[in-house]
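Tutorial, part two.
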Amino acid sequence: MSNPPLTPIATIHSPYKEKFAVPRQPGLVPSASALLEIHAPYDDINAFSGLDEFSHLWLMFIFHKNKQSIKWQPMVRPPRLGGNKRVGVFATRSPNRPNPIGLSLVEFHGIEQKQGKLFLRLSNIDLVDGTPIIDIKPYIPYADLKPEARAGFAQHIPETSMQVVFTQQTEHATANNNQLKVLITEVLKQDPRPAYKKLTLDNKRYAMNLLNFNITWYVEGNLTTVESIDLLKA
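Running the prediction step on this input gives:
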């Protein structure tokens, strides 16, 4: 008997409207909050009884932004290694895998019901808006936390010396929205540029859609300057 196909049970509503600038791992942008909308018939509140006793959740998801034309490769170039060294795909968390399935650890802040829909409030996420979720599991410290574990090239949290500053114009744009300013700062401190760009003189302007804003910036050495913050047209 064959197993039934995987069915998304929920969808993430996150500030990241495109793949570019999404943190490469969860936990790197603490202020990145999201709502997880549970689909019917899985939105039965009884299915979440007891979940409020947990602070963190594992989300299994589908890399839905992967291009179907891109085939998996046995060797990939992790950004953590500068984009130059190749390692086996199964020694990484590369999205280009035989099956486009990912795993993310997120903070859980409670259940919310509104307009007849059920949502989970989350933060510290690394998922692009619209990501389909195929399972939710509670994080269990005694089983999931292994301080003695070896993690190869990803043993420690990525170090960043990047500083983020705002022009007078963008300071004004965030004057009454400190939450937006903090989010932009945390995202850009991770330096989302392609890894090879960090080793050369970079004169390029970059842009990302974050929440309902288009953000542009440029980088000089270890200094990122936020150049513009424009409201996206509906």
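The chain has two domains: 10-144, 163-231. In part three we will examine how such features are distributed along the chain.
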